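Request from the bench team (R.T.):
"We need a structural guess for the complex before ordering more adenosine-5'-diphosphate. Sequence and SMILES attached. Just send the tokens back."

Command: build protein-adenosine-5'-diphosphate structure.
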Amino acid sequence: MSIIVRDLVKRYGDKTIIDGISFEIAQGELVSLLGPSGCGKTTTLRCIAGLETPEAGFIAIDDMVVFDSQAGIAVEPYHRDIGMVFQSYAIWPHLTVFENVAFPLRIRRRPNTEVETRVTKALAMVGLSAFRDRSSQQLSGGQQQRVAVARAIVHAPAVLLFDEPLSNLDAKLRDQTRAEIRKLQRELNVATVYVTHDQAEALSLSDRILVMRDGVIRQQGTPEAVYGTPLDAFVADVVGPANFLPVTVVGAASGGVEATLAGGEHVLAAFGPTTPGPANAMIRPDRLVLGAVPGANQLHGRIRQRLYLGGHFEYLVAVGSASLRVLSSAMAAEGDSVTLSFTAADCIILATDTQETSSWA
Ligand SMILES: Nc1ncnc2c1ncn2[C@@H]1O[C@H](COP(=O)(O)OP(=O)(O)O)[C@@H](O)[C@H]1O
Ligand SMILES: [Mg+2]
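Reply to R.T.: structure attached below.
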């Protein structure tokens, strides 16, 4: 394993920020830490980098123990085999592009010939060869981001750490850079921890996603697994747009779980806890169909708002006391009474009490 984190605990004062998290990342694997602002993503990354000292736990990087609270080991950041890209890029304005990228080699006192070779190669990999002698002050945001990436990879680290590296770029550049980061990471074949609060970034880039909440890992799995079978409403909401409908679970039924809406209508879901009682039915906005589909679950509501998104619409539909988002290319007007359909396969029952996942259909 390239990265091993075990029972990591970090506190600031009497506030526990990281509450005993554990995970492992294999060589070549890209794993995202995904969660809302303040859940402890950056703190976790900084603990791995050695920029924060945890209260407890164990961290190994490329088979080297870099932190072990019980053995009293805490290796300096510069002796950890990592490259890191900060949210702010942390480019030194008074240095040239070349010297910014050379920095990790200079502090490791590598000979000039090696610095020349490695910096040249790193700049070529991020497409900045022509900029090597520029002052860093002359760079655009996107170019600064590339300098930060080149600096992270220049010493061929075993592990790469990214902290929201795209958040300061505009939308178009963000999409392009996202694809480039994935390509580069594949080429380098290094274990990578990628911190983000952006669901689309995490889903598109990751081999595996760790969904964090209040300093713990709530769920981990492939993008398909956390998106398709979230453990609870929090995870469902963090990994993608989600609609929640309050329901009462009746019990197991052929084909899944049966539940009823407040108005008494029946809903069949593919899976979820079968314990009778209050729960939430979760349906993604792109899985709700405007119109009556025979044999599917059907809801009746009224369109409150329509937004044109180019090629399709986003509708806000009032169904009972709930408000559902629907993505559809079908035409309807605000105020229209509509039927919404969805199949059981596109509906998951989530327990309202997230601990209650005992019996699943
Ligand atoms: N140096 C610090 N001193 C005190 N509290 C901090 C410090 N750094 C972070 N925190 C707190 O720790 C929590 C997690 O922060 P952070 O890891 O930056 O979250 P994220 O990156 O997920 O947005 C936040 O509540 C933040 O206010
Ligand atoms: Mg952060």
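Two things stood out. The chain has a mean pLDDT of 93. The chain has two domains: 3-233, 242-351.
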